[in-house]
Amino acid sequence: MSALYLLEPDAPGPEWVPFAGVRPLAELRAGAWLIRERWEAAVALDTVAVIGSHVEGFSEPGAAPVRGAGRIDGPAIVALSAFAPSGARVDPGAARRITHQGTTVAWVVPAGDSWQGPHDRGPAVDIEGLPLRGAYDLVTALEVLLPADCADFVGSSMSGVPEGSLVLGDPGRVITRGATVEPGVVFDVRNGVIVLERGVEVRHGARLEGPVYAGAGTRILGGFIRGCAFGPECRVHGEISTTVFLGYDNKSHDGFVGHSVLGPWVNLGAGTITSNLKNTYGPVRLQADDVRIETGRLNLGTLFGDHAKTAIGTMLSTGTIISAGASVFGEPTPRYVPPFSWGSRGQERQSQDDFLRVAERVMQRRSVSLTPELRTSLQRTHARGTAA
Questions:
Q1: H helices within the chain, ranges in order?
Q2: What is the pLDDT of residues 354-377, one digit of tens each?
Q3: How far is CA 268 from CA 146, 205, 230, 309, 337, in A?
Q4: Is the pTM of the predicted complex or chain greater than 0.90?
């Protein structure tokens, strides 16, 4: 039986801030699913390991182990983490490469052979999907992939409209897989399917406009939500549009968040607002430290790294980056906040002990333990972030 390996860039550039050096690209959400999950579905294999030195020592429940570069013996498939497959499953057959529009995105290693590194040799089979240029393209992936991801659930035996709900469109496009929905919730499925996984709770006063995917245990506490994907155990409220929540995120209060990406364990204080459109209606540029990144996108809000936090009333400009572990408060927030900043300007950094102490408190609120493996992983993340 073949094994699946996911290949990270050797050293992800500033275009992958705030996730480079923090978590594997394979563990980012593209549409409803993680990139790792998309590859596993595309080739019908489980991931044995992620190959990525930039996140050496990364550990997280449910994630694939991370290892350094080296020879991979077949039978195996080695696939790029910076590509999000879509569409039908791919059978490589006798092919030695999997390509997208002429570019190799995976290598097929037969039994008795080995893979030493990327190459363009041998016959290829094509795959549908989306190349990802940087973290900002997770918003593009949401726009492109989420409608079909949610539509895949249509016809599920767990479809059905909760009692007391109002549906605009075809009731068969409301999928409640063990969710609890209070009376008075509005489901607008005219533009996409809405999927609520096991343990999801939707409170009275919420209006959901599909496509929307809500992962297990997420609570939608009210507000207007459209075109979003929420990972497990999120708490969301207010106006949220075209935004990716990786999981365990907290936005329990009012405030607009649009065309943004939230790494896990992000907490947004009440009244946090993201701008997602420039006054000039021009393309958005990101500023990652001293590097400018052309995204080509007209709508882009804020990229929040793992464990980032904002104070109440925080106003964020179009194309802002809040790096991992940063705690934003005080003076106006710049468009780039360094990792583990204490305050908006990054002049002071949180110590490793302080960061871990807060992380442990936060994780306990979702009944997640800071295991020795997780603690070591976060210690390494902190060391990489504060050395930058």
A1: 35-43, 137-151, 352-364, 372-387
A2: 999 999 999 999 999 999 999 999
A3: 24, 21, 15, 6, 15
A4: yes
